Structure formats: structure tokens, C-alpha cells
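sry for the spam today, last one i promise. C-alpha cells for design, 226 residues
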């Protein structure tokens, strides 16, 4: 929580520190298994130690906070992913890529929670300028992931290369949502195991679906024509 010395951020450095503190608090609220649906702007402001109106001086909405946090988390994960590939004993290829991809994401629940809500929640209640800035950062990170993919499996022809990377985001979001049923659903699974067919192991499902997607893209050219 911020102290009184941060009550009025005047310089660029103070404003940057205030924004960083807001992002760090949002991250902490999600890090313990929190859900975006339960993260309110009022509670975020309370935990930062600011009035809600003051938080809105630095971010235009709760969703704007979370979009920037998504970019920060994704950049940190890409660093981890590249390091995991460099340290892997297995030879470069689809299996090594898919295993490191799933393994490193499994350790970043904040990122996966954000990814699972990016299109349906985070891109609402934000201005076109905020979305455009997020999309620019996202495009840069997609290009970085595509370059990592190129180095592991060879360059896929377009539009398959871009579609492959985009599919990975969809896989992660879907698998994460299936991994975290709400309490009522979890209770049903416990009482009626035969209904738990939708319960999945996040790392295994992501690893296998990413590997299958890459393999498919390499053997069958993709068409995006309707």
C-alpha cells in the first residue's frame, strides 16, 4: 500500500511509480488464485491505498489496468519460455517447444487468467486509444513468439505461421477456464465423477494441443478463406 508521500504524484517518475504500484497490486490480487470476475476497481483502489477516482487518474478503467498487466506478464513469460528452451536437454522440435510452452505457462496463473479473459472481458470498457496501444504491444509479443517457433520447428508459411501462434492463445484460454471450475461446478464433479469429463490437466492439454496444432500446420496448408 502506498504511503502519504505518494498522495500527489507530480513528476513523471512519481506517476510511473504510481502506475507500477497499481499493476503490482492487481497482480497480487490475482496471484493467489483470484479471478478477474472478483477483482473490482473499488477493492483494487483500497488495497493500493488510493481513492477510486485517483486510480482512474492513472488508468482509465479496471480493464485498462488488466490489459497493461497482461502485456507485462506476457513479456516476462516469453523471457522464461526462451530460457526454458535454451536449458532443455531434448533436441529442438515440436515436442520440446510444446512441453516448454505448457510447463512455463503452468507456473504463471496470473498470465493464464488474463489470457483466458482477454477477448471477452479485458477489451471492454476501454477507449480505442487504450485498445490500440495494447494491440501494438500484443503484436510485438506475437512476433516474438512466432520467431521462437521458427527457431524450434522451422518457418511455417503464412498464413499458417500467424494462425498457429493465434491458436496457442485460444488453447491456453480454453484450457485454463476448464481447469478452474466455479465452486458449484467443482462440487458437482466431486459428487458425480461421471460428469467430470470436462475437467482437464492444464499442462497436459496445452502441451498436446499445441503439439498437434503445430504438426497439423506443417502438414496441411491453412486457408483463411470463408
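last one done:
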Amino acid at each position: 500500500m502506498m504511503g502519504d508521500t505518494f498522495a500527489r504524484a507530480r513528476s513523471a517518475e512519481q506517476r510511473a511509480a504510481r502506475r507500477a504500484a497499481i499493476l503490482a497490486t492487481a497482480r497480487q490480487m490475482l496471484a493467489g488464485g483470484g479471478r478477474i470476475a472478483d477483482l473490482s476497481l473499488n477493492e483494487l483502489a483500497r488495497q493500493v491505498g488510493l481513492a477510486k477516482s485517483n486510480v482512474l487518474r492513472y488508468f482509465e478503467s479496471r480493464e485498462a489496468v488488466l490489459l497493461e498487466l497482461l502485456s507485462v506478464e506476457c513479456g516476462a513469460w516469453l523471457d522464461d519460455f526462451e530460457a526454458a528452451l535454451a536449458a532443455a536437454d531434448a533436441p529442438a522440435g515440436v515436442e520440446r517447444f510444446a512441453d516448454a510452452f505448457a510447463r512455463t505457462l503452468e507456473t504463471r496463473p496470473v498470465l493464464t487468467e488474463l489470457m483466458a479473459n482477454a477477448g471477452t472481458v479485458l477489451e471492454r470498457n476501454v477507449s480505442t486509444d487504450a485498445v490500440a496501444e495494447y494491440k501494438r504491444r500484443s503484436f510485438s509479443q506475437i512476433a516474438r513468439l512466432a520467431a521462437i517457433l521458427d527457431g524450434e520447428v522451422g518457418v511455417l508459411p503464412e498464413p499458417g505461421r500467424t494462425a498457429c501462434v493465434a491458436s496457442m492463445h485460444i488453447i491456453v484460454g480454453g484450457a485454463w477456464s476448464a481447469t478452474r471450475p466455479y465452486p458449484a461446478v467443482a462440487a458437482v464433479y466431486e459428487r458425480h465423477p461421471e460428469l467430470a469429463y470436462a475437467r482437464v490437466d492444464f499442462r497436459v492439454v496445452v502441451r498436446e494441443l499445441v503439439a498437434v496444432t503445430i504438426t497439423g500446420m506443417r502438414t496441411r496448408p491453412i486457408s483463411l478463406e470463408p
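Residues 62-218 form a domain with the Tetracycline Repressor; domain 2 fold (CATH 1.10.357.10). ok im logging off now
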